[in-house]
Amino acid sequence: MRQLVIATALILGLAQAALGFEIEDERRFGPETAPEFSVLSTTDTAIFAPIIQAFLADRPGIALRYVVASSQEVFRAIREEQAPFDLVISSAMDLQMKLANDGFAGPFTLEFATSVPEWAHWRDRLFGFALEPVVLLASRKAMAGLEMPRTRRDLIDLLRANPERFNGRIATYDPHVSGAGYLFATQDARQTDAFWRLAEVMGRLNARLYCCSGEMINDLEAGKIALAYNVVGSYAATRLPQAPDIEMIELEDFTVALLRTGFVPRNAKSAALGAELLNFMLSPEGQAVGGGVVPPLDQAALRPHLRPIRLDPGLLVYLDRIKRMNFLGEWDAAMTQP
Predict the structure, then answer these.
(1) Contact at 8 Å (CB) between 128 and 120?
(2) Mean predicted confidence (pLDDT) in 210-225
(3) Where are the CATH 3.40.190.10 domain residues in the chain?
(4) CATH, domain range 2-131+259-310
(5) Inter-residue contact 334 to 201 (CB < 8 Å)
(6) What is the pTM of this model?
(7) Most buried of 37, 75, 105, 109, CB within 10 angstroms?
């Protein structure tokens, strides 16, 4: 009996270790008795639920387990733990590219692959299905009497001219803990030197650093902050109808646009269903369903100030250990300005 207890404990311990990454949310869609496939994603369940429900509507014999984690935890789950999922979705394009480039994504064929621009997929391994602007959010109440910034130069001038109003009340991602936040910061830095001037100004004003877009939006609604820089636009768009005080601004000098991407892991147990869901997301029906909360790929042609991040090996540059250390060191120096 003692040996059985020890063996059982070892099995449970190994199972727990195999899925040791931190889960933020988990939900099962579909009939209770139906066989299920699984999706690991950084996209909040509430945002992705309409797509899942539309997909399952014509497939009553299957169910889907949807697991949400941060981009860093998604990366760790697949790379270090080989967690068994059938589709992996993330907003951290560089981490997704790293996984695909290192052999963790299997090849698959998509019926609607030809509708994906060349810059929005990598070989037959990794596909973008949504193009999302990374925006500035502002509280209209906090900005009373001031003009809304339309460029980074405007934002820098606004903060410098009104330190008493914005001290401790501007927010952005913490690139140390957020994979998406690190991606946005490095992309901004590649686009313009004004990024580092902005970072220094935010540092002098004791900017608050966050893990997630949702938390920044919560604090903006609560009046704890006045501005939030580099927020994922789809998260903001879902909240704006209930938050009339918040204005969403796509900066006109340039607005980085991320690709939310998906791949089927090489060790997927139900790879065909994972590929089928991604194919649905790229279909006209899936793009229409998702377009209400997750902007479709064709939005790149509508607003010339958008700068889509290309899905190519150039994304791996800032994942180099030395480059990452140097970038974060420069960021920390900017954030600790006297």
Answers:
(1) yes
(2) 94
(3) 2-131+259-310, 133-257+320-335
(4) 3.40.190.10
(5) no
(6) 0.83
(7) 105
